[in-house]
Write a structure and sequence with these properties.
Layout lengths: L1 H26 L5 H7 L2 H21 L8 E3 L2 E3 L2 E3 L2 E3 L10
Antiparallel strand pairs: 1-4, 2-3
Helix pairs in contact: 1-3
Length: 98
């Protein structure tokens, strides 16, 4: 769970980090990073970070093909060979648990 939070925060802060690095390298102002942050277009960077984070979430979620009713099968040994874990589609509908 912490990995997902760290990924989201990273993609959210990526435009701001790239902006700070670009301005600091361009003007050689590593000692004046607070001044760089005061002059930064933070609203634009916030919007760019939110758009990048949402794009990342949509991209990762569209590549996951597991439906909620799928069954997880952990890795196991069969005939001396290790079979990887996988998700199989449930053929029978699962009863609603109430």
């Amino acid at each position: 769970m912490i990995r997902i939070v760290v990924e989201n925060v990273f993609f959210f802060l990526l435009p701001t980090l790239l902006y700070i690095a670009w301005v600091a390298f361009r003007s050689d102002e590593w000692a004046g990073l607070p001044a760089v942050m005061r002059q930064a277009p933070l609203l634009r960077l916030f919007i760019a970070g939110a758009a990048l984070m949402l794009t990342t979430l949509i991209t990762f979620s569209s590549r996951t093909y597991n439906a909620p009713q799928d069954v997880y099968v952990p890795q196991s040994m069969h005939d001396g060979k290790l079979e990887p874990s996988r998700s199989i589609h449930a053929t029978d509908p699962q009863p609603d648990s109430k």
